[in-house]
Amino acid sequence: MDNIETQDEALSIAQRNKKSRIMKAKGKMIARKRALAMKKKANPEKLKKRAQKKARDLLTKKILKDKSKSDLSQSGRENLEKKLDKKKALIKKIAKKILPKVKAAETERMAKKGKGDK
């Protein structure tokens, strides 16, 4: 897969639109690859990324309070990304703390998948 999952810095409106066009073109291929990848056990790097995503989502919820991220305008999402970029150290700290939960969830997912096959 390309660098589509990686989110290092806030996107401008033009960049966001460009990414939207790319996802429209490659979305089905990415979904198919994701479905194949979900059949395998995730490697530690992937688990770390999942933990960081969960940590980022937790901070997003905290910042937005009762609003939804999808309700924000493009400039609002851009501002949110900038705020989250300033909190990278906190995101890493939270991700490290929730990594065992992510690993446990992955182990449980693989156990359930094994039961479904037999």
Largest sheet: none
Q: Whole-number average pLDDT?
A: 88
How does the overall form come out from the CA principal axes? globular
Which residue ranges are poorly predicted, with pLDDT under 50 across at least 5 consecutive positions? 1-5
Structural class: mainly alpha
Radius of gyration: 16 Å
Percentage of β-strand residues: under 5%
Helical proportion? over 70%
Distinctive features:
118 residues; mainly alpha; single chain; globular; 0% strand
Overview of this structure, please?
Helices cover 75% and strands 0% of the residues. The chain is an all-alpha fold. The N terminus is likely disordered. It starts with 12 loop residues before the first helix and ends with a helix. The protein has one domain. The chain is globular and about 45 Å long. Helix 2 crosses helix 4. The protein contains 4 helices and no strands.
Helix and strand topology:
Blueprint (H helix, E strand, L loop, with lengths): L12 H25 L6 H21 L9 H13 L1 H30 L1
Helix pairs in contact: 2-4
Describe the structure concisely.
With 118 residues, the protein is mainly α.
